[in-house]
Amino acid sequence: MIAVAAAIVACTAAGVLAERRRGPLAVRAARGALDFMFFALIPFVTFFSLARLHLTSGVGIGIGLAYLELAAAGLLAWLLATRVLHLSRPATGSLLCVVVLANTGYLGLPLSAALLGSGALTAAIAFDSLVSGPMFYLGGFAIGAAFGDHDEGVRARLARLFLRNPPLVSAIAGLLAPTALAPHSLVDVAHGAVWGLLALGFFALGVNLAAEAEEGALAFPPPFTRPVAAAVALRLALAPALLAGLAALVIRVPHAYLLQAAMPSGINSLVIGHAYRLDLRLASAALAWTTAIVLAGALVGAAF
User: What is the pTM of this model?
Assistant: First the structure.
Protein backbone atom coordinates (compact mmCIF):
# COMPACT_ATOMS: atom_id res chain seq x y z
CA MET A 1 0.00 0.00 0.00
CA ILE A 2 2.78 2.41 0.96
CA ALA A 3 4.68 1.53 -2.25
CA VAL A 4 1.63 2.28 -4.42
CA ALA A 5 1.00 5.60 -2.68
CA ALA A 6 4.68 6.55 -2.94
CA ALA A 7 4.74 5.70 -6.67
CA ILE A 8 1.67 7.85 -7.35
CA VAL A 9 3.03 10.82 -5.41
CA ALA A 10 6.48 10.51 -7.00
CA CYS A 11 5.17 10.30 -10.59
CA THR A 12 2.75 13.19 -10.13
CA ALA A 13 5.48 15.31 -8.52
CA ALA A 14 7.85 14.43 -11.38
CA GLY A 15 5.27 15.71 -13.85
CA VAL A 16 4.81 18.96 -11.93
CA LEU A 17 8.58 19.49 -11.67
CA ALA A 18 9.14 18.67 -15.34
CA GLU A 19 6.53 21.20 -16.46
CA ARG A 20 7.94 23.94 -14.25
CA ARG A 21 11.48 23.35 -15.49
CA ARG A 22 10.85 22.46 -19.14
CA GLY A 23 7.45 24.02 -19.83
CA PRO A 24 6.25 23.29 -23.40
CA LEU A 25 8.69 20.38 -23.75
CA ALA A 26 7.13 18.68 -20.72
CA VAL A 27 3.62 19.29 -22.09
CA ARG A 28 4.62 17.65 -25.38
CA ALA A 29 6.16 14.77 -23.44
CA ALA A 30 2.92 14.30 -21.47
CA ARG A 31 0.87 14.27 -24.67
CA GLY A 32 3.30 11.77 -26.14
CA ALA A 33 2.95 9.62 -23.03
CA LEU A 34 -0.85 9.62 -23.37
CA ASP A 35 -0.55 8.73 -27.08
CA PHE A 36 1.85 5.89 -26.22
CA MET A 37 -0.59 4.59 -23.61
CA PHE A 38 -3.52 4.85 -26.01
CA PHE A 39 -1.95 3.34 -29.12
CA ALA A 40 0.57 0.89 -27.64
CA LEU A 41 0.73 0.17 -23.92
CA ILE A 42 -2.99 -0.19 -23.14
CA PRO A 43 -3.65 -2.42 -26.20
CA PHE A 44 -0.66 -4.61 -25.27
CA VAL A 45 -1.75 -5.02 -21.65
CA THR A 46 -5.37 -5.55 -22.70
CA PHE A 47 -4.71 -8.24 -25.30
CA PHE A 48 -2.43 -10.43 -23.21
CA SER A 49 -4.51 -10.04 -20.05
CA LEU A 50 -7.85 -10.92 -21.69
CA ALA A 51 -6.39 -13.75 -23.77
CA ARG A 52 -5.72 -15.59 -20.49
CA LEU A 53 -8.90 -14.51 -18.70
CA HIS A 54 -11.34 -17.30 -17.79
CA LEU A 55 -14.73 -15.67 -18.21
CA THR A 56 -16.41 -18.09 -15.83
CA SER A 57 -13.97 -17.38 -12.99
CA GLY A 58 -15.15 -15.03 -10.29
CA VAL A 59 -18.20 -13.92 -12.26
CA GLY A 60 -21.34 -13.34 -10.24
CA ILE A 61 -24.50 -11.35 -10.10
CA GLY A 62 -22.50 -8.52 -8.57
CA ILE A 63 -20.95 -7.82 -11.98
CA GLY A 64 -24.38 -7.04 -13.38
CA LEU A 65 -25.20 -4.91 -10.35
CA ALA A 66 -21.97 -2.97 -10.90
CA TYR A 67 -23.13 -2.02 -14.40
CA LEU A 68 -26.48 -0.85 -13.02
CA GLU A 69 -24.66 1.20 -10.40
CA LEU A 70 -22.42 2.86 -13.00
CA ALA A 71 -25.36 3.56 -15.30
CA ALA A 72 -27.25 5.26 -12.47
CA ALA A 73 -24.20 7.28 -11.39
CA GLY A 74 -23.51 8.29 -15.00
CA LEU A 75 -27.11 9.39 -15.54
CA LEU A 76 -27.00 11.50 -12.40
CA ALA A 77 -23.66 13.01 -13.49
CA TRP A 78 -25.22 13.99 -16.83
CA LEU A 79 -28.23 15.55 -15.12
CA LEU A 80 -26.02 17.54 -12.74
CA ALA A 81 -23.73 18.68 -15.56
CA THR A 82 -26.50 19.79 -17.90
CA ARG A 83 -29.31 20.88 -15.56
CA VAL A 84 -27.52 22.17 -12.46
CA LEU A 85 -23.90 23.04 -13.29
CA HIS A 86 -24.57 24.03 -16.93
CA LEU A 87 -21.20 22.71 -18.11
CA SER A 88 -19.96 22.80 -21.70
CA ARG A 89 -20.09 19.61 -23.77
CA PRO A 90 -16.36 18.83 -23.25
CA ALA A 91 -16.71 19.46 -19.51
CA THR A 92 -19.84 17.31 -19.35
CA GLY A 93 -17.95 14.52 -21.07
CA SER A 94 -15.10 14.84 -18.58
CA LEU A 95 -17.46 14.69 -15.61
CA LEU A 96 -19.11 11.57 -17.01
CA CYS A 97 -15.72 9.94 -17.59
CA VAL A 98 -14.32 10.60 -14.11
CA VAL A 99 -17.55 9.25 -12.58
CA VAL A 100 -17.97 6.01 -14.59
CA LEU A 101 -14.27 5.17 -15.05
CA ALA A 102 -12.62 4.01 -11.83
CA ASN A 103 -9.01 3.13 -11.10
CA THR A 104 -9.74 -0.52 -10.25
CA GLY A 105 -6.57 -1.85 -11.89
CA TYR A 106 -3.22 -0.57 -10.72
CA LEU A 107 -4.74 1.03 -7.60
CA GLY A 108 -7.79 -1.12 -6.87
CA LEU A 109 -5.95 -4.45 -7.08
CA PRO A 110 -3.10 -3.50 -4.70
CA LEU A 111 -5.59 -1.93 -2.30
CA SER A 112 -7.77 -5.06 -2.31
CA ALA A 113 -4.77 -7.21 -1.40
CA ALA A 114 -3.53 -4.76 1.22
CA LEU A 115 -6.84 -4.09 2.94
CA LEU A 116 -8.81 -7.31 2.37
CA GLY A 117 -6.07 -9.91 1.98
CA SER A 118 -4.79 -11.85 -1.03
CA GLY A 119 -7.92 -14.01 -1.02
CA ALA A 120 -9.90 -11.00 -2.26
CA LEU A 121 -7.81 -10.64 -5.42
CA THR A 122 -9.86 -13.08 -7.52
CA ALA A 123 -13.02 -11.04 -7.08
CA ALA A 124 -11.11 -7.77 -7.50
CA ILE A 125 -9.57 -8.94 -10.79
CA ALA A 126 -12.98 -10.11 -12.06
CA PHE A 127 -14.43 -6.67 -11.32
CA ASP A 128 -11.54 -4.89 -13.01
CA SER A 129 -11.58 -7.11 -16.11
CA LEU A 130 -15.33 -7.49 -16.60
CA VAL A 131 -16.62 -4.11 -15.41
CA SER A 132 -13.92 -1.44 -15.65
CA GLY A 133 -12.42 -2.85 -18.84
CA PRO A 134 -15.61 -2.72 -20.96
CA MET A 135 -16.59 0.59 -19.37
CA PHE A 136 -13.31 2.02 -20.69
CA TYR A 137 -13.34 0.36 -24.13
CA LEU A 138 -16.99 1.09 -24.85
CA GLY A 139 -18.50 3.45 -22.27
CA GLY A 140 -15.58 5.85 -22.01
CA PHE A 141 -14.97 6.09 -25.73
CA ALA A 142 -18.69 6.45 -26.40
CA ILE A 143 -18.71 9.42 -24.01
CA GLY A 144 -15.67 10.88 -25.77
CA ALA A 145 -17.25 10.44 -29.20
CA ALA A 146 -20.52 12.01 -28.01
CA PHE A 147 -19.15 14.98 -26.05
CA GLY A 148 -15.72 15.58 -27.58
CA ASP A 149 -14.86 18.89 -29.18
CA HIS A 150 -15.14 17.61 -32.76
CA ASP A 151 -17.24 19.07 -35.57
CA GLU A 152 -18.50 15.67 -36.71
CA GLY A 153 -21.84 14.10 -37.51
CA VAL A 154 -23.28 11.05 -35.81
CA ARG A 155 -21.87 8.66 -38.44
CA ALA A 156 -18.36 10.10 -38.08
CA ARG A 157 -18.55 9.87 -34.30
CA LEU A 158 -19.61 6.21 -34.47
CA ALA A 159 -16.78 5.47 -36.89
CA ARG A 160 -14.36 7.20 -34.52
CA LEU A 161 -15.66 5.10 -31.61
CA PHE A 162 -15.21 1.73 -33.32
CA LEU A 163 -12.44 2.30 -35.87
CA ARG A 164 -10.09 4.63 -33.98
CA ASN A 165 -10.16 2.75 -30.70
CA PRO A 166 -7.06 0.53 -30.34
CA PRO A 167 -7.96 -0.63 -26.80
CA LEU A 168 -11.36 -1.88 -28.01
CA VAL A 169 -9.80 -3.71 -30.95
CA SER A 170 -7.22 -5.33 -28.67
CA ALA A 171 -9.93 -6.30 -26.15
CA ILE A 172 -12.00 -8.06 -28.82
CA ALA A 173 -8.89 -9.74 -30.20
CA GLY A 174 -7.84 -10.84 -26.72
CA LEU A 175 -11.22 -12.40 -25.97
CA LEU A 176 -11.23 -14.26 -29.30
CA ALA A 177 -7.59 -15.31 -29.33
CA PRO A 178 -6.58 -18.83 -28.26
CA THR A 179 -4.50 -18.98 -25.11
CA ALA A 180 -1.57 -20.30 -27.16
CA LEU A 181 -1.10 -16.76 -28.49
CA ALA A 182 -0.60 -15.47 -24.95
CA PRO A 183 2.31 -17.37 -23.37
CA HIS A 184 2.74 -16.89 -19.63
CA SER A 185 5.96 -14.95 -20.18
CA LEU A 186 4.17 -12.24 -22.18
CA VAL A 187 1.24 -12.21 -19.77
CA ASP A 188 3.72 -11.54 -16.96
CA VAL A 189 5.24 -8.72 -19.00
CA ALA A 190 1.77 -7.27 -19.60
CA HIS A 191 0.96 -7.37 -15.89
CA GLY A 192 4.27 -5.70 -15.13
CA ALA A 193 3.51 -3.04 -17.73
CA VAL A 194 0.61 -1.93 -15.54
CA TRP A 195 3.21 -0.09 -13.47
CA GLY A 196 4.18 1.72 -16.66
CA LEU A 197 0.59 2.86 -17.06
CA LEU A 198 0.63 4.14 -13.50
CA ALA A 199 3.91 6.00 -13.99
CA LEU A 200 3.03 7.56 -17.35
CA GLY A 201 -0.54 8.38 -16.35
CA PHE A 202 0.30 10.17 -13.13
CA PHE A 203 3.26 11.92 -14.79
CA ALA A 204 0.83 13.28 -17.40
CA LEU A 205 -1.54 14.27 -14.59
CA GLY A 206 1.23 16.22 -12.84
CA VAL A 207 2.26 18.01 -16.05
CA ASN A 208 -1.33 18.93 -16.85
CA LEU A 209 -2.00 20.25 -13.35
CA ALA A 210 1.17 22.37 -13.35
CA ALA A 211 0.55 23.71 -16.87
CA GLU A 212 -2.98 24.79 -16.02
CA ALA A 213 -1.70 26.42 -12.81
CA GLU A 214 0.93 28.45 -14.67
CA GLU A 215 -1.67 29.67 -17.17
CA GLY A 216 -3.85 30.81 -14.28
CA ALA A 217 -6.55 28.35 -15.29
CA LEU A 218 -6.01 25.96 -12.43
CA ALA A 219 -4.34 26.33 -9.07
CA PHE A 220 -2.06 23.64 -7.74
CA PRO A 221 -3.32 21.83 -5.82
CA PRO A 222 -6.50 22.19 -7.90
CA PRO A 223 -9.43 24.07 -6.35
CA PHE A 224 -12.36 22.10 -5.02
CA THR A 225 -14.92 23.54 -7.45
CA ARG A 226 -18.57 22.53 -7.76
CA PRO A 227 -17.91 20.17 -10.71
CA VAL A 228 -15.01 18.59 -8.81
CA ALA A 229 -17.17 18.24 -5.70
CA ALA A 230 -19.84 16.55 -7.84
CA ALA A 231 -17.24 14.16 -9.23
CA VAL A 232 -15.95 13.29 -5.75
CA ALA A 233 -19.44 12.73 -4.35
CA LEU A 234 -20.61 10.61 -7.27
CA ARG A 235 -17.43 8.53 -7.65
CA LEU A 236 -16.49 7.96 -4.00
CA ALA A 237 -19.81 8.09 -2.17
CA LEU A 238 -22.74 7.42 -4.48
CA ALA A 239 -21.20 4.64 -6.59
CA PRO A 240 -20.29 2.28 -3.71
CA ALA A 241 -23.50 3.18 -1.87
CA LEU A 242 -25.57 2.25 -4.93
CA LEU A 243 -23.77 -1.08 -5.30
CA ALA A 244 -24.18 -1.84 -1.60
CA GLY A 245 -27.87 -0.97 -1.77
CA LEU A 246 -28.50 -3.06 -4.87
CA ALA A 247 -26.59 -5.97 -3.37
CA ALA A 248 -28.65 -5.75 -0.17
CA LEU A 249 -31.80 -6.11 -2.26
CA VAL A 250 -30.56 -8.99 -4.44
CA ILE A 251 -27.55 -10.91 -3.16
CA ARG A 252 -24.47 -10.45 -1.02
CA VAL A 253 -21.47 -9.46 -3.14
CA PRO A 254 -17.76 -9.87 -2.30
CA HIS A 255 -16.26 -7.09 -0.21
CA ALA A 256 -13.75 -6.55 -3.02
CA TYR A 257 -16.59 -5.44 -5.31
CA LEU A 258 -17.61 -2.72 -2.86
CA LEU A 259 -13.98 -1.60 -2.48
CA GLN A 260 -13.49 -1.51 -6.24
CA ALA A 261 -16.69 0.50 -6.65
CA ALA A 262 -15.19 3.12 -4.31
CA MET A 263 -11.94 3.56 -6.22
CA PRO A 264 -10.94 7.05 -7.46
CA SER A 265 -11.35 8.27 -11.00
CA GLY A 266 -9.22 6.35 -13.47
CA ILE A 267 -6.20 7.67 -15.33
CA ASN A 268 -7.98 6.43 -18.47
CA SER A 269 -10.15 9.55 -18.15
CA LEU A 270 -7.09 11.54 -19.24
CA VAL A 271 -6.46 9.17 -22.14
CA ILE A 272 -10.00 9.67 -23.43
CA GLY A 273 -9.95 13.39 -22.67
CA HIS A 274 -6.74 13.76 -24.68
CA ALA A 275 -8.01 11.65 -27.59
CA TYR A 276 -11.38 13.46 -27.84
CA ARG A 277 -10.44 16.94 -26.59
CA LEU A 278 -12.60 16.89 -23.49
CA ASP A 279 -12.01 19.25 -20.56
CA LEU A 280 -8.65 18.02 -19.22
CA ARG A 281 -8.72 20.69 -16.51
CA LEU A 282 -11.79 19.17 -14.87
CA ALA A 283 -10.58 15.61 -15.42
CA SER A 284 -7.18 16.37 -13.87
CA ALA A 285 -8.68 18.09 -10.83
CA ALA A 286 -11.16 15.26 -10.22
CA LEU A 287 -8.39 12.69 -10.62
CA ALA A 288 -6.16 14.49 -8.15
CA TRP A 289 -8.83 14.96 -5.48
CA THR A 290 -10.42 11.51 -5.68
CA THR A 291 -7.02 9.79 -5.66
CA ALA A 292 -5.78 11.85 -2.70
CA ILE A 293 -8.94 11.12 -0.70
CA VAL A 294 -8.83 7.38 -1.39
CA LEU A 295 -5.11 7.10 -0.63
CA ALA A 296 -5.53 8.99 2.64
CA GLY A 297 -8.45 6.79 3.64
CA ALA A 298 -6.60 3.60 2.63
CA LEU A 299 -3.50 4.56 4.63
CA VAL A 300 -5.65 5.21 7.69
CA GLY A 301 -7.50 1.92 7.15
CA ALA A 302 -4.25 0.00 6.73
CA ALA A 303 -2.91 1.52 9.94
CA PHE A 304 -5.86 0.19 11.91
Answer: 0.79
